[in-house]
Design brief:
Length: 178
C-alpha cells in the first residue's frame, strides 16, 4: 500500500527462512500487487503463510494475542495503532525507525527497528525476534506497562479534554483582546 512496500518483506522472508521456518505467518490487508508478489515466494515458504485481505479488527487482535512477532515496517510518519495493539497483546513489534516511532519506543527494549525498504534489516530483526526469548519476554512486560501509560483511554481522555479546554480558553482570550 502507500504506507509500506511488500516486496522487501518477501525478500526478507527468503533471507531469514532457514532460521525461522518453524513459524506460521499471517499476512493481513493484502493488496492486489502484494498478492502477485506473494505468489513468487518459494514453494517451501508459501504453505506457512496465510495471505488475507482486510479482516475485522477483533480478528486481528485475536491473532496478535497468539503471535510472537508483529512485523510492520512502514514508510510514513505516525505511530501505527498496530504498534500499541501489539504491545498490549504481547506480540513483539518490528517497526521502522521513523522519528515519530523512535520518540515512543526504544530499539531492543520495546521493539526492533527495521526499515521497510531494507530486506536484510527486516530479516535480521525477524531472526532475532524469533530466536531471542529473553528479548521478546522482557519487552512484553515493559511494553504492557508502557502501553498502559501511553494509550489507556481513561488517561488519554483526561489529557485530550484538558488540551482542548486550554485551547478553547486561549482562543476566547485572544478574541476578547481584539
Amino acid at each position: 500500500c502507500l504506507w509500506s512496500v511488500a516486496l522487501p518483506v518477501y525478500e526478507a522472508l527468503k533471507l531469514a527462512w532457514d532460521r525461522i521456518k518453524r513459524c506460521k505467518i499471517h499476512m493481513l490487508a493484502m493488496t492486489p500487487d502484494a498478492r502477485l508478489w506473494f505468489n513468487t515466494l518459494p514453494a517451501d515458504i508459501r504453505p506457512h503463510c496465510h495471505a488475507r485481505d482486510r479482516i475485522p479488527r477483533e480478528e486481528v487482535l485475536s491473532l496478535m494475542q497468539h503471535s510472537r512477532v508483529l512485523l510492520a515496517p512502514s514508510l510514513v510518519d505516525g505511530v501505527p495503532n498496530t504498534l500499541y495493539e501489539a504491545m498490549a497483546t504481547g506480540a513483539f513489534p518490528i517497526v521502522s525507525s521513523l522519528e515519530t516511532i523512535v520518540s515512543v519506543v526504544e530499539h531492543e527494549r520495546n521493539v526492533l527497528f527495521a526499515r521497510n525498504l531494507y530486506p536484510q534489516e527486516i530479516a535480521d530483526a525477524l531472526i532475532r525476534a524469533m530466536n531471542d526469548d529473553e528479548l521478546v519476554d522482557g519487552a512484553a512486560q515493559r511494553n504492557l506497562s508502557l502501553v498502559r501509560r501511553m494509550a489507556d483511554r481513561d488517561t488519554i481522555r483526561v489529557r485530550v479534554r484538558g488540551f482542548y479546554e486550554k485551547l478553547a480558553c486561549q482562543e476566547r482570550g485572544s478574541d476578547s483582546s481584539r
